[in-house]
């Protein structure tokens, strides 16, 4: 009986060590996943920002939803998506010279503004917007 308990404890210790060593494994804790995602986002030069107001229409909400889905679907946690309330984040608004609802893909000094395309397609043709977001991010890597 003692041997069986010792073997089980030993096996649990080994599996716990393997889980800890794999930063982004599905069995890792939420804290480890957050640390790994933060490290990946810091390495990635491409970031996606959606600037919006506090009061939002259905299209504004759809642009954010579709953009967030596209970034997650095509790039997982490797690329960063940030929804920015213009009325609360004055520093980012000033940095990117934003004056209204804006969808930006940014890599260093380069910016691609996808706002018009986003507002035309977010509700009726979300797949078209997702493909454009994917191709834009891929071209900026």
Automatic annotation (TrEMBL):
Residues making up the signal peptide according to the UniProt record: 1-21
Superkingdom assignment: Bacteria
Keyword Zinc: no
UniProt keywords, alphabetically: Plasmid, Signal
UniProt-listed InterPro entries: ArsF-like (IPR047698), Thioredoxin-like_sf (IPR036249)
Cross-referenced NCBIfam families: nitrored_ArsF
The protein's name: Thioredoxin domain-containing protein
Organism: Fulvitalea axinellae
